[in-house]
């Protein structure tokens, strides 16, 4: 395993000198590259090194650092190693290269990230709407989007169901019934 | 004369659709010439909600990602947290986890039997298999208190030890189910209608499978031997003896053959696990959940479910809540990009059979 990893690091460094590698325990190996290199390094992994399975694409919002991190996880059935290809993109006006010509399924991930994080992928084809319908707010998976605040502002409580309300008392008020004595001790 | 193309909206409320999603079909007569998956009827923003919950509160949402098989998600989360924290899990807990995962697989296979046949009009199978699934749910109820959502496999081990005499009950149920699987074969695989409706329908070839990142039984139905339990073993799967069935053809029939064998392999695994189960504790206690802080780090873990590989990416920024949870179920690729391609050229009547066969589960797509 360690020998395969060493060979992989050597191969990647020869083609992408600026890539930095981090070795982890078990069958995991991380590479960090510039975002422009993503399509070429993934093609390299798929076509030359046999990492044919794109297992996952994910995006993490590092709000404090003003960056999104994109991570592409590829897997080789022969080497049995998980490769993490990581890159960072600035949070203001984020643009990433599109990789759905390498793996067709990447299209689904990219459509989701465009909607949920507001990341644009160059040349991405696919309906603008994926999960959200008629959405005009900010991309909701960003860390600075407050779900609770949005819900409070957008929706309203059913009358008698406002927050922190004693629902039993409201129901009794509406039905004009007295609280029975035995139940009074439970009432607030 | 060429038929005029019309648009057919299949779902979101349709008995043939496996959950709340819609497929926008372009049809010419009965033949599909274009398809587009439309989701958004079920988005619950679990991933966003989990970012505001501590590590244990977040765990309670994991099993709710997808109803037919809830334990792989719990197990993924538990394992990801353990990987980030470096927490040891008692060996007995690992055996119990495998038993629960395989029981969940069996229960999910039973639902698939019902769904796959129901989509072709063979309703008897659904009555049988969903009825038999209840025997597994009874076991879950005794073990965990819940029939569908268990919240049993949690970080550090499992929630409690097996009740007294539970192993014997499981073995008895396995004997019964093994006998029943023979009955299912008579009804399903010796059935001329089933053969006619499934052979050569919903074709996925090897090249398409790799291009789309296909996983699980769909990949094995193309003749590619791939199973996370063997390739990237977790818990105690590397100590167990079982086979990974494959079939050639890449159609619904091939995938059904694979699943038929896999259900039997699950029974085989459960028997082994019970025979080999060591004693000892089942839980490596975690700190007070309110003060439980994980070190900085990330983990990507994969679990084999009936629908295929489930991947969970978990990030900790050194706080008491997850920075990011991202679950990728098999349906995320099967039911969007792959389904859109596979449906072209098929008959409208086969859409639901193809969806069932690809393991479509809409809650996995939009989470």
Index terms:
heterodimer; A: 188 residues; alpha/beta; Beta Polymerase, domain 2; 5-stranded mixed sheet; two-stranded parallel ribbon; 30% helix; 22% strand; elongated; B: 367 residues; alpha+beta; Cytochrome-c3 Hydrogenase, chain B; 3-stranded antiparallel sheet; 14 helices; 8 strands; globular
Account of the protein in words:
The complex is a heterodimer of chains A (188) and B (367). Chain A has 188 residues and is an alpha/beta fold. Chain A has helices at 2-15, 38-48, 106-116, 147-154, 167-175, 181-184; strands spanning 20-23, 28-32, 53-62, 67-75, 82-90, 95-96, 120-121. In chain A, a hairpin with a 4-residue loop joins strand 3 and strand 4 (67-75). Chain A has one domain: Beta Polymerase, domain 2 (2-Layer Sandwich), CATH 3.30.460. Chain A is built from 6 helices and 7 strands, in the order αββαββββαβααα. Chain B has a single domain (5-366), classed as Orthogonal Bundle (Cytochrome-c3 Hydrogenase, chain B), CATH 1.10.645. The longest helix of chain B has 28 residues, at 91-118. Chain B has helices at residues 46-50, 55-62, 71-85, 91-118, 123-144, 166-188, 192-198, 206-211, 216-220, 228-231, 252-276, 331-342, 351-357, 362-366; strands at 5-10, 22-28, 31-38, 153-154, 157-158, 297-304, 309-316, 322-328. Chain B has 14 helices and 8 strands. In chain B, strand 4 and strand 5 (157-158) form a beta hairpin. Chain B is 47% helix and 13% strand. In chain B, the strands form 3 sheets. A 3-stranded antiparallel β-sheet of chain B has the order 1-2-3. In chain B, strands 6-7-8 form a 3-stranded antiparallel β-sheet. In chain B, strands 4-5 form a two-stranded antiparallel ribbon. By secondary structure, chain B is an alpha+beta fold.
């Amino acid at each position: 395993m360690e020998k395969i990893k060493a060979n992989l690091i050597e191969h990647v460094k020869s083609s992408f000198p600026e890539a930095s590698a981090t070795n982890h325990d078990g069958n995991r190996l991380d590479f960090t590259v510039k975002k422009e290199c993503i399509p070429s390094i993934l093609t390299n992994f798929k076509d030359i090194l046999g990492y044919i399975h794109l297992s996952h694409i994910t995006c993490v919002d590092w709000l404090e650092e003003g960056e999104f991190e994109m991570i592409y996880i590829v897997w080789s059935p022969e080497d049995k190693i998980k490769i993490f290809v990581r890159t960072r993109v600035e949070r203001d006006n984020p643009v990433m290269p599109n990789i759905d010509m390498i793996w067709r399924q990447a299209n689904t991930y990219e459509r989701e990230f465009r909607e949920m994080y507001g990341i644009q992928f160059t040349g991405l084809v696919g309906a603008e709407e994926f999960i959200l319908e008629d959405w005009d707010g900010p991309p909701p998976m960003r860390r600075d989007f407050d779900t609770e605040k949005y819900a409070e502002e957008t929706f309203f409580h059913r009358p008698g169901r406002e927050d922190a309300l004693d629902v039993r008392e409201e129901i009794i008020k509406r039905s004009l019934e007295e609280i029975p004595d035995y139940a009074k001790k439970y009432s607030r | 004369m060429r038929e005029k193309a019309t648009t057919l909206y299949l779902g979101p409320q349709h008995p043939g659709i496996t959950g709340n999603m819609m497929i926008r079909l372009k049809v010419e007569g009965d033949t599909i010439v274009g398809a587009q998956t439309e989701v958004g009827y079920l988005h619950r923003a679990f991933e966003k909600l989990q970012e505001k919950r501590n590590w244990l509160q977040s765990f309670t949402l994991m099993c709710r990602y997808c109803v037919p098989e809830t334990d792989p998600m719990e197990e993924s989360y538990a394992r990801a947290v353990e990987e980030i924290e470096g927490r040891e899990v008692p060996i007995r807990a690992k055996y119990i986890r495998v038993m629960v995962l395989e029981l969940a697989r069996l229960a999910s296979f039973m639902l698939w039997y019902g769904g796959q046949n129901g989509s072709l009009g063979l309703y008897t199978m659904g009555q049988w298999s969903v009825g038999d699934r209840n025997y597994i749910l009874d076991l879950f109820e005794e073990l965990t208190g819940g029939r569908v959502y268990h919240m049993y496999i949690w970080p550090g081990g499992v929630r409690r030890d097996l009740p007294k005499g539970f192993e014997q009950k499981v073995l008895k149920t396995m004997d019964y189910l093994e006998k029943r699987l023979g009955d299912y074969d008579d009804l399903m695989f010796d059935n001329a209608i089933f053969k006619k409706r499934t052979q050569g329908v919903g074709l996925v070839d090897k090249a398409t499978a790799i291009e789309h990142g296909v996983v699980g039984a769909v990949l094995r139905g193309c003749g590619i031997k791939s199973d996370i339990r063997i390739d990237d073993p977790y818990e105690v799967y590397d100590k167990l003896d079982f086979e990974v069935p494959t079939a050639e053809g890449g159609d619904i029939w091939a995938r059904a053959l694979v699943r038929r064998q896999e259900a039997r392999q699950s029974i085989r695994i459960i028997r082994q696990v019970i025979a080999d189960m060591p004693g000892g504790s089942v839980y490596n206690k975690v700190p007070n959940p309110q003060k439980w802080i994980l070190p900085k780090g990330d983990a990507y873990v994969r679990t084999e479910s009936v629908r295929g590989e489930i991947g969970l990416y978990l990030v900790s920024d050194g706080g008491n809540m997850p920075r990011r949870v991202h679950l990728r179920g098999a349906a995320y690729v099967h039911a969007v990009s792959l389904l859109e391609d596979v449906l072209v050229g098929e008959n409208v009547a086969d859409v639901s059979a193809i969806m069932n066969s690809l393991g479509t589960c809409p809650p996995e797509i939009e989470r």
